[in-house]
Amino acid sequence: MSEITKHAPGMLCWTDLTTRDVNAAKRFYPELLGWSTRDTPMPEGGVYVMAQQGGKDVAAISAMTKEQQKQGMPPMWNSYFAVTNADEVAKKIVAAGGKLLAEPFDAMDAGRMCIAQDPSGAMFSLWQAKKHLGAGRMNEPGALCWTELETSNVDACRGFYTKVFGWKTETRQMAEGPYVVFSAGEKQVCGMMACSKNTPKGTPSHWTVYFAVKGCDDTVEKAKKLGAKIVVPPADIPDVGRFAMMFDPQGAFFAVLQPSPRM
Questions:
Q1: Can you tell me the distance from the alpha carbon of 26 to that of 59, in angstroms, rounded to the nearest whole number?
Q2: H or E element: which one contains 30?
Q3: Class of residue 198 by CB neighbours under 10 A (exposed 0-12, middle 13-18, buried 19+)
Q4: d(Cα 74, Cα 9) in Å, to the nearest integer?
Q5: 51 and 29 in contact (C-beta within 8 Å)?
Q6: What is the pLDDT of residue 181?
Q7: What is residue 200's predicted lDDT score, i.e. its pLDDT?
């Protein structure tokens, strides 16, 4: 996929990093994924750093608030799903057993958003696009290509997300156990699995974003040199590609995927 002009409702549409050290992240990710960056001043102070690939926004980086740091919130990548009306979907979240961490609000004139938790505690966001559609490129090297929920309660989350977004589900048998693929219409959106044996003990349910790369092994070696901690070394997923998972130098968890030639 190349340039995107609109994200259909229910689709993964954006990701941003909340971190303690924006400048360090601005060094790490462009070197690893080939991004250029552009600082966007925020009304309340600080900057929202847009990461670009091929002249289009593909992700963003922002600083944690003092309150988030006091609460011990770890650096993290956030998954956003496209909606046509954030307020209506927020009501569905509550009705389906989720929580609103931030009621729908306007992100200046860029769009309207909401931050929520599913029944297992995993955080995700809604994005109702206005002037900013979300990712302008996806599913190509350096861009967002997938997001995956690791949860302590697969059954509850399956029911929750199908009610909130109207997603369809398909369960596949993978090496580590059942893997649920969520789809919006005919398009695959994201995956879900029970917490992995590779996940550190005590890790709460969470979404993990994947960035596409040309070569998984080369990317992992570069990440090591840049200070990343590799959690899952390069491994093949039949008919999907080769992937790896890691923490960046500040502790944000993410994955990279070298898609198979057939994808």
A1: 12
A2: helix 22-33
A3: exposed
A4: 29
A5: yes
A6: 97
A7: 67
List, in sequence order, every residue forming a beta bridge with 118; answer none if it has no partner.
none
- Three-state SS sequence of 173-214: EECCEEEEEEEECCEEEEEEEECCCCCCCCCCCEEEEEEECC
- Cα–Cα distance measured from residue 105 to residue 116, given in angstroms and rounded to the nearest whole number: 12
Domain boundaries, the chain: 12-129, 144-259
Sign of the Cα torsion 188, 192, 193, 195 reads positive
Q: What is the pTM of this model?
A: 0.95
- Secondary structure of residue 168 in the 3-state scheme: strand
Q: Using alpha carbons, select from 185, 214, 241 the residue that is nearest to residue 7.
A: 185
∠ CA 200-205-210, nearest 5°, is: 80
Cβ distance 81 to 124 under 8 Å?
yes
Radius of gyration of the chain (CA): 17
Widest distance between CA atoms in the chain? 47
Residue 259 amino acid letter: P
pLDDT at 88: 98
CATH ID of 144-259, from 3.10.180.10, 3.30.70.420, 3.40.605.10, 3.40.190.10: 3.10.180.10
pLDDT at 42: 82
Torsion sign, CA atoms 222, 228, 206, 143: negative
Decide: 144 and 15 in contact? Cβ < 8 Å. Answer: yes
Report the chain (263 residues): mean pLDDT per 10 consecutive residues: 87 97 96 96 85 96 86 91 98 98 94 97 98 96 97 96 97 88 95 82 89 98 98 92 96 96 65
87/104 Cα distance (integer angstroms):
6
What b/e string do you get for 60-97 counting C-beta neighbours within 10 Å, with b at 16 or more?
A: bbbbbeeeeeeeeebbbbbbbbbbeebeebbeebeebb
